[in-house]
Write a structure and sequence with these properties.
Length: about 300
Amino acid sequence: MIKPPALIKGDKIGLVAPARKITQEELQPAVDIIRSKGFIPVYDERLFSADRQFAGNDKLRAVYFQHLLDNPEIKAIFSVRGGYGSVRIIDQLDFSVFNLYSKWLIGYSDFTVFHSHVNQQLGVQTLHATMPLNFGSNTPEALDGLFDVLQGNTPEYYLEQHLFNRRGDAKGILTGGNLSVLYSLLGSNSFPETEGKVLFIEDLDEYLYHVDRMMMALFRAGILSGLKGLIVGGMTDMNDNEIPFGKTAEQIIQEAVKKYDYPVCFGFPAGHIDNNMPLIMGAEVRLEVAEKSHIIFME
């Protein structure tokens, strides 16, 4: 996998909204933070377009994203927020110029579409991390971790024990992202190859039976069988029906992979949480699940 170049102070960072709309007022605190970190945020009025829930229609969002992908002065691109809409424009984008001088693409949630597509089709690493809309509520550790990785530092994590963890050691390329988005990509050329890799999943605001449906879909498609390891992030604000499903999201995931023997790490601080720590998608990781779990990104 190709690792995009590290940023240096004074570099330009493009801001894009590939999914849900955002206002100038919502974005301004993050713009100030990016500048305080020594970088130059780049965007224009198209970023604040609106078409129903979207940040402009599909064509406008794709054209604007393409402009940032093709601009050699832009050294990284932040998705300003998630929502829904990235899958509607992924096939309109041309990554041929991006391939000539790769740059960091950063986001999470709906941005999983781009993590998966760029890792799988282009062999370029991307950064699963917090987005500007969340900067105001993020922990200092999450924000500092994000800009540390962008400037060339390699993250390393130590985690407390979790009841559902399955011990073991594994090494493999990290892939994945938001479970619902991965589920929506099944059967497409954007779905990541998972054989021999470490899969990361997280999700927000899903019904428990739907989490079960998605895990069963991955199970039946053979996605879970060839993994080297599994990392489970935040499964946040889950919903249930009047008649309870009877299991938590973590229990559903644990059950879906119980027949396999690879290590499983629950409770990783990434996803729809304030302490949303960065993960380099497409990088090789060493996963050690024990009393104190350890995740190391290999150089």
